Give the backbone structure.
Amino acid sequence: MTAPGSRERGFARAALAAMRSYLVDDQQVAFSLMFCANNLRAFYGKLDWRLFADTPLVVHRGVAMEFTLNPAMVQDGICLAPAAGRLDLRGPPW
Ligand SMILES: CC(C)(COP(=O)(O)OP(=O)(O)OC[C@H]1O[C@@H](n2cnc3c(N)ncnc32)[C@H](O)[C@@H]1OP(=O)(O)O)[C@@H](O)C(=O)NCCC(=O)NCCS
Protein backbone atom coordinates (compact mmCIF):
# COMPACT_ATOMS: atom_id res chain seq x y z
CA MET A 1 0.00 0.00 0.00
CA THR A 2 1.00 3.60 -0.54
CA ALA A 3 0.36 5.82 2.49
CA PRO A 4 -2.73 7.98 1.82
CA GLY A 5 -0.76 11.23 1.95
CA SER A 6 1.74 10.00 -0.65
CA ARG A 7 -0.57 8.67 -3.35
CA GLU A 8 -0.60 9.71 -7.02
CA ARG A 9 3.13 10.39 -7.00
CA GLY A 10 4.28 7.24 -8.77
CA PHE A 11 5.43 5.21 -5.75
CA ALA A 12 3.28 2.15 -6.47
CA ARG A 13 4.25 2.23 -10.16
CA ALA A 14 7.95 2.31 -9.19
CA ALA A 15 7.58 -0.50 -6.63
CA LEU A 16 5.71 -2.73 -9.08
CA ALA A 17 8.23 -2.03 -11.83
CA ALA A 18 11.02 -3.11 -9.46
CA MET A 19 9.08 -6.27 -8.57
CA ARG A 20 8.54 -7.04 -12.26
CA SER A 21 12.20 -6.49 -13.05
CA TYR A 22 13.19 -8.94 -10.30
CA LEU A 23 10.64 -11.58 -11.29
CA VAL A 24 11.10 -11.40 -15.05
CA ASP A 25 14.68 -10.20 -15.64
CA ASP A 26 16.29 -12.04 -12.72
CA GLN A 27 14.00 -14.98 -12.00
CA GLN A 28 12.72 -15.48 -15.56
CA VAL A 29 9.18 -16.32 -14.46
CA ALA A 30 6.85 -17.37 -17.28
CA PHE A 31 4.11 -15.02 -16.08
CA SER A 32 2.66 -13.59 -12.85
CA LEU A 33 -0.74 -14.04 -11.28
CA MET A 34 -2.36 -12.25 -8.38
CA PHE A 35 -5.74 -11.92 -6.76
CA CYS A 36 -6.94 -8.35 -6.84
CA ALA A 37 -9.65 -6.43 -5.01
CA ASN A 38 -12.33 -5.34 -7.48
CA ASN A 39 -11.77 -1.63 -6.81
CA LEU A 40 -8.08 -1.92 -7.82
CA ARG A 41 -8.61 -3.53 -11.23
CA ALA A 42 -8.35 -0.19 -13.07
CA PHE A 43 -5.11 0.64 -11.25
CA TYR A 44 -3.47 -2.70 -12.11
CA GLY A 45 -4.86 -2.46 -15.65
CA LYS A 46 -2.75 0.67 -16.13
CA LEU A 47 0.30 -1.39 -15.16
CA ASP A 48 -0.28 -4.09 -17.80
CA TRP A 49 -2.15 -6.59 -15.63
CA ARG A 50 -5.10 -8.25 -17.38
CA LEU A 51 -8.15 -9.94 -15.96
CA PHE A 52 -7.92 -13.73 -16.04
CA ALA A 53 -11.23 -15.08 -17.31
CA ASP A 54 -11.45 -18.29 -15.28
CA THR A 55 -11.25 -19.17 -11.60
CA PRO A 56 -7.93 -20.65 -10.39
CA LEU A 57 -7.75 -23.57 -8.00
CA VAL A 58 -6.04 -23.04 -4.64
CA VAL A 59 -5.53 -25.14 -1.52
CA HIS A 60 -7.32 -23.94 1.61
CA ARG A 61 -6.91 -25.92 4.85
CA GLY A 62 -5.65 -28.87 2.86
CA VAL A 63 -8.56 -28.90 0.41
CA ALA A 64 -8.33 -27.93 -3.28
CA MET A 65 -11.04 -25.44 -4.26
CA GLU A 66 -11.83 -22.58 -6.64
CA PHE A 67 -10.75 -19.17 -5.35
CA THR A 68 -13.78 -16.93 -5.75
CA LEU A 69 -13.11 -14.15 -3.23
CA ASN A 70 -11.32 -11.82 -5.69
CA PRO A 71 -10.76 -11.90 -9.45
CA ALA A 72 -7.39 -13.11 -10.71
CA MET A 73 -5.18 -10.86 -12.85
CA VAL A 74 -2.16 -11.91 -14.89
CA GLN A 75 0.87 -10.17 -16.35
CA ASP A 76 3.34 -11.43 -18.96
CA GLY A 77 6.73 -12.72 -17.89
CA ILE A 78 9.15 -14.25 -20.37
CA CYS A 79 6.06 -15.89 -21.89
CA LEU A 80 2.63 -14.49 -22.69
CA ALA A 81 0.30 -14.93 -19.73
CA PRO A 82 -2.74 -17.11 -20.43
CA ALA A 83 -6.02 -15.21 -20.71
CA ALA A 84 -8.13 -18.11 -19.47
CA GLY A 85 -8.01 -21.81 -18.70
CA ARG A 86 -7.41 -24.08 -15.74
CA LEU A 87 -4.72 -22.78 -13.38
CA ASP A 88 -3.98 -24.87 -10.31
CA LEU A 89 -1.78 -23.05 -7.78
CA ARG A 90 -1.32 -26.25 -5.75
CA GLY A 91 -1.06 -24.10 -2.66
CA PRO A 92 -2.63 -21.15 -0.83
CA PRO A 93 -3.67 -17.98 -2.70
CA TRP A 94 -1.03 -15.90 -0.90
C1 LIG B 1 -3.67 1.59 -5.34
C2 LIG B 1 -2.43 2.26 -4.71
C3 LIG B 1 -1.38 1.18 -4.38
C4 LIG B 1 -1.86 3.26 -5.75
O1 LIG B 1 -0.65 3.82 -5.18
P1 LIG B 1 0.01 5.15 -5.76
O2 LIG B 1 1.40 5.23 -5.23
O3 LIG B 1 -0.91 6.28 -5.53
O4 LIG B 1 0.02 4.84 -7.34
P2 LIG B 1 0.88 5.58 -8.48
O5 LIG B 1 1.04 7.02 -8.10
O6 LIG B 1 2.12 4.82 -8.75
O7 LIG B 1 -0.14 5.50 -9.70
C5 LIG B 1 0.18 4.84 -10.92
C6 LIG B 1 -0.96 5.10 -11.88
O8 LIG B 1 -2.18 4.53 -11.38
C7 LIG B 1 -3.20 5.54 -11.23
N1 LIG B 1 -3.97 5.22 -10.04
C8 LIG B 1 -3.60 5.39 -8.75
N2 LIG B 1 -4.57 4.92 -7.93
C9 LIG B 1 -5.56 4.44 -8.73
C10 LIG B 1 -6.83 3.85 -8.48
N3 LIG B 1 -7.29 3.61 -7.22
N4 LIG B 1 -7.59 3.47 -9.55
C11 LIG B 1 -7.16 3.69 -10.81
N5 LIG B 1 -5.94 4.26 -11.12
C12 LIG B 1 -5.18 4.65 -10.08
C13 LIG B 1 -2.43 6.85 -11.12
O9 LIG B 1 -3.21 7.95 -11.53
C14 LIG B 1 -1.28 6.58 -12.09
O10 LIG B 1 -1.74 6.73 -13.42
P3 LIG B 1 -0.84 7.50 -14.53
O11 LIG B 1 0.48 6.76 -14.59
O12 LIG B 1 -1.67 7.38 -15.76
O13 LIG B 1 -0.68 8.90 -14.01
C15 LIG B 1 -2.81 3.07 -3.46
O14 LIG B 1 -3.91 3.91 -3.75
C16 LIG B 1 -3.18 2.18 -2.28
O15 LIG B 1 -2.31 1.73 -1.54
N6 LIG B 1 -4.48 1.92 -2.13
C17 LIG B 1 -4.96 1.02 -1.08
C18 LIG B 1 -4.75 -0.41 -1.57
C19 LIG B 1 -5.33 -1.41 -0.64
O16 LIG B 1 -6.30 -1.14 0.05
N7 LIG B 1 -4.73 -2.60 -0.65
C20 LIG B 1 -5.19 -3.66 0.20
C21 LIG B 1 -5.89 -4.73 -0.57
S1 LIG B 1 -4.86 -5.43 -1.83
